[in-house]
Amino acid sequence: MKIAIAPDIHLNKAVFKGVYDRQYPTVPFRSADFMRAFEWCVDKCINELKPDIFVIPGDIYDNPSPSNKVRGFFSKQLRKLNSNKIPVLILIGIHDVYMTNHALKDIKELGLKSIKIVEDPKILDYKGAHLFLLPYSIEVEQGKVTMKEEFEKFLVKIKEKDDGVPSIFFGHFSVQGAKMNEYADPLQIAKGMTKSEADKKDRLNKNKDDISVSDLDRIGSDYVFLGDFHEFQILKTKNCVALYGGTLEKSDFSEISQKKGFVFYDSDATEEGHLKKCRFIENPNCRPIIELEGNFNKIRDQFNDLDLSKHQEAMVKIKFKGTYNESLIFSSNLDSFKRNIIEKVNPIYFDSTQDVEKKEMKEEADKLEEEIKDTGHLSGDNIMPIVAEALAERVEDEEEMKFMVALGTEIYNEVTKGLI
């Protein structure tokens, strides 16, 4: 049996909503990116992999109120799978539900045999195997039962079904110790960690009320495929292969280093490594992301080192880090640098932030700003330290740098003599 597993497809992705796609100008570009990623996955399955079943373990949508355009797109992809005789199994995910309803009701009400929407825990028999299915139910959403309690109740039914037949488990929930979706942790930032450092730090789920890794071993299945967390990851179980398939596309800058794609299981495959009879199929078409960090020279050098052919129409973020004197150099060059980036990669989204070191330097910079406002220029005493920092980035020899600073000071004093 061959199974394609693609959780967390988040078709109406809600980040950067104010920027619209160039190919589909009525759709936010991140929604269009996730739609294109899902279409790539569907086409890959139809044209190459030809699975016996296509499983989505939750979160078709980013929120339960997708536009008609997004709903129509999803229906079109389901129709393609149906036309190629690939049945689809969809578990409801946490983002698909709102209190008393979920976003897949319209598809469920069509009553198509080849498309099954799983709203509650269920056991299906398919091609000589048991499929154990644990979605995020409306009862959990309403707080009538916790996900852990739902899991324990379902485990009883699974044990009653224990008849030696191979089984595969699919679920949508959080597991203790798994890497959570990477967003900046305000507490870490408050303790002195920069937002950049916090963004790149692995954060593990420490909620003691969630299902544990050892709980997954209790299921008794050889394979456990999960949705909810967005990074592809293999969990440290003892008796089974348990993993989060991750998303098909990168959500934002915090996922810049993650590989995205979907999981393919083949019962006839030879077991290899930790994935055994599974393999991860990477999406080669993710939206390019460029994140440049440091003072102006470092940022410029990082950009110049990129293979620009692989970064066309990228999301771009510039994160200045340095002293206040360096920040003046950065600010004076930012506009022309932006124009250079726009000319070379035509970014769809552009953002820049500044992280200036030391409070006393902020006070110094404020004084410089006031001096410019009052006199229309800076004095030589204030300009030359800035020049010295700029030269330090370019001139390695200390004596040569001192000579150039002295020469610059002499020229400045000569030029401004009688003008001030």
CATH top-level class of the largest domain: Alpha Beta
Helix content: 25-40%
The count of helical stretches stands at: 13
For the largest sheet, list the strands in their spatial order. Answer: 6-3-2-1-13-14
The ordered H/E elements are EHEHEEEHEEEHHEHHHEEEEEEHEHEHHH
Question: How many structural domains can be distinguished in the coordinates?
Answer: 2
Mean pLDDT: 87
Q: Give the low-confidence spans.
A: 184-195
Structural class based on helices, strands and sheet pairing:
alpha/beta
* Multimeric status of the protein: single chain
DSSP strand tally: 17
The CATH architecture of the largest domain can be given as 4-Layer Sandwich
Name of the CATH superfamily of the largest domain: Metallo-dependent phosphatases
CATH topology of the largest domain: Purple Acid Phosphatase, chain A, domain 2
Percent of sequence in beta strands: 15-25%
Helix and strand arrangement:
Elements: E1 2-5, H1 29-49, E2 53-57, H2 68-83, E3 88-91, E4 97-98, E5 101-102, H3 105-108, E6 115-118, E7 122-126, E8 129-134, H4 138-141, H5 147-160, E9 167-172, H6 186-190, H7 195-200, H8 213-218, E10 223-227, E11 233-234, E12 241-244, E13 261-266, E14 278-282, E15 289-294, H9 296-304, E16 315-322, H10 324-345, E17 349-356, H11 359-375, H12 380-394, H13 398-416
Parallel strand pairs: 1-2, 2-3, 3-6, 8-9, 9-10, 10-12, 15-16, 16-17
Antiparallel strand pairs: 1-13, 4-5, 7-8, 11-12, 13-14
Helix pairs in contact: 1-2, 9-10, 10-12, 12-13
